[in-house]
Amino acid sequence: MIELTELSLESVAKVFNFLENVLKDYLLEIDTFERELQKYSLLEQYFICEYGSVYYSKQKINSLLKSRSFNGYEDFQIRFIEENADNFIKEVEGMRGSLKKLAKNHKRKYGDFTTFKLPDGFIEKPIDFRLPLYFAVEDARDFEKKLGNKLKTK
Predict the structure, then answer these.
(1) pTM for the complete prediction?
(2) Which residues fall in a coiled-coil region (predicted)?
């Protein structure tokens, strides 16, 4: 089990400051969240997602809106937060599962988190190209010839 106490106090403060900024500065905008999340360690990212899904659930956002906690916000900002809340939670839940697996594997293998930082670009974007569903006859024959030649050389 991964505990919050495995983070240093400085990291715990970074996690919760980031969560505060996600709402105040980024208005739960998921692209900005993903980009800024890359600056944190694996364990920090996991706890950001863990507590982000709790603090920014649809129920919590609705109760914040009803309690008038958004004094000083423009109407368009409040609407933006409401619209982003669902997508934010879906993305964070997905990331949390992946990060939890990575963190558990790293902990099992190395015992601590001082040596591990996720590489840049860990959160992948969808592949934006199409694969052909068929081959033209000439292409298929060429492919078979090339494949046959490679298999014969081995």
Answers:
(1) 0.69
(2) 16-43
